[in-house]
Amino acid sequence: MIASEFAVPRLCDLNRPSAVLSGADWALACEIDGLATVREVAGRSGIALDDAIERVTRLIRAGLCTIPEAAADPGDRQQQRQQRQQPPSAAAAPLPRRVRETGRAAPGTPPGQVRLDTRLLQQILDGLNARK
Fold first, then answer.
1. Of 9, 70, 129, 130, which has the highest C-beta tally within 10 A?
2. DSSP labels for the chain?
């Protein structure tokens, strides 16, 4: 499946042990909330629409993202956004913020790839579980 600018991508559980993403694909995946269209995600990410479509398509092929068959109309998405913007519960831990690195990659890291700290991944997972 190839994404279109009006598709609403959703992250999904990985159906295999692992996946390798480029830093650019990871950054785009962090912007996907299940409510925004590819066009809106591109705008938030500050990348060209064509690049966003290509990256979402790579995420789909990697098994990290899906586009539901029955996409909600814009009015439904607006209502879902408003419901989702309710304040989180006090028990929810704050999610880590992405930091743009200006230094060099760790030794042994392939060009264009990112080496992630498992503590960061655990914080992300804990934050996502708290939102359920």
1. 9
2. ----TT---EE---SSS----BHHHHHHHHH--SSS-HHHHHHHHT--HHHHHHHHHHHHHTTSEE--SSPPPHHHHHHHHHHHTSPPPTTSPPPPPP----SPPPTTPPTTB-PPPHHHHHHHHHHHHHH-
